[in-house]
Hints:
Bound molecules: iron/sulfur cluster
Number of helices: 15
Radius of gyration: 22 Å
Oligomer: single chain
Amino acid sequence: MRALFINPPVYDFSAFDLWSKPYGFLFIVDLFVRNGWDVSFFDFLDRNHSFYDGKTRKDKKYGCGNYYYEIIDKPAFYRNVPRRYKRFGLPNHVFIEFLENAGRFDVIVITCAMTYWYSGMLEVIKICKNFTDSPIVIGGVYPTFCYQHAKTAGADIVFQGGNIRKFVEIFNENTPFHLNYIENLKPCWNVYEKLSYLVVRTTFGCPFSCYYCGVNKIHPVYLLRNQDEVVQEAVKNLERYRVNDIAFYDDALLYNFDHLRKIVEKITEAKKVNFHTPNGIHPRFINNEMASFLKMYNFKTIRLSVESFDIKRQHESSNKLFFSEFERAMKNLITAGFSKEELAAYILAGLPGQKFEEVTETVKILKNFPCKIKIAEYSPIPGTIDFEISKKLYPELPLDEPLYQNNSIFPLWNFEGKWEKINWLKNFVRDS
Ligand code: SF4
């Protein structure tokens, strides 16, 4: 049996390879491999594809970099957004050439990492249907959070959520094939010929439940992965791909220090690498010992989840950070030797009912600290508490349309002079 797995191109105003890999999808690939299937993989966002050889590839630090893109017409939905709209990823002719040479697949599985990126998935489904009548299975963030919408995408099976046992059940009920459920799957990195970095999860899920977050819908239970398995996965692939950077995808990386420490120590025994925390880590857990540990083990990119210093917002953020805890974390990080270049604080902008001034107040406070400030544009995620609050507060907005969930358009900010103010905010942050 042969299966093809596809990570589609991205349609958006901006996209950047910031240690971006379809990590959860690679576990599904492993499920098929361990059931004896022959698998092929096509990642439109693979910056190590031979298409990039030469001048189209632009690399930045630590293996990150720009995707190939083409500027395209904006959908009518975005006509008032004063930014260029692009298609990021390998051109379709590269994919079609791949399909022409690949032969027949019995099943095609496609993922989609954002609700508002569904156009890329639709494009891929359409191309595949010109080549085959094999069942097409879709999963990932878009079908999970916009299930009804995804049912119109033209796939044969729409899989919602991140429960692999459930995936097996649905697959077996709806195709002529049979998969056995397998415990302890791991990401099947073998599908990549080259990598510029690795990504790793030491846990699944998050013990917190913030109003704006959808993590609990994908991983409802907070689980620690087996430490030896995580270490083996990292060490084997560091060696195989000769990479020096690992980005953690955990949602609450520091919550269990002992678990993290053991994993990091063992990986470092095998190879000294740079660690990165693009998902944001909780400043509350950064005591003296933690800060020294992060420095000693070469954490190079520290992203602190601040969200907002507004008291009301702190409740919506599971009370996971008070200002005094942030101050203490910064003091400990600086004492441990971190520089401003390595530290950044994420703040959320565009939350339901959030005034522009609330964001600027948080920025002003952060400017007193030696860290960069990163604006995380809020995007209303269906199924979250904040999504329901947004629907009540803004009944006139088309929040159920996935394109409207694009964080780049600050969907909930509809005040006069919106884009001038947003540009001002971005400059204000850049000046810090
Ligand atoms: S702490 Fe982060 S990952 Fe966890 S629920 Fe809150 S926003 Fe989501």
